[in-house]
Write a structure and sequence with these properties.
hydrolase, six-stranded mixed β-sheet, 1 helix, Nucleoside Triphosphate Pyrophosphohydrolase, about 40% strand, globular
Amino acid sequence: GIIRNENNEIFITRRAADAYMADKLEFPGGKIEMGETPEQAVVRELQEEVGITPQHFSLFEKLEYEFPDRHITLWFWLVESWEGEPWGKEGQPGEWMSLVGLNADDFPPAN
């Protein structure tokens, strides 16, 4: 989810130093589980990863990626209202960043 606060900052997490694509920035989120809608997945993933419960969110963009071994669909949800305070619940660093501070090269290709 793209978690945006009233200061127009985005909450971003960073991949662990020992993870695939280490230290890259990423939007909190994850895979849709069997039988789950994309909307249900964003609520569950944000609760699991950053400890918030989205109250209002809307589809920002949907992207499709083809890799030699798989096809992935990324759903980008703009979250502007939530309960709780976001933090790296799974041990990942998280921070509020200005939109002007975000650079596409700091993210994995499919994020």
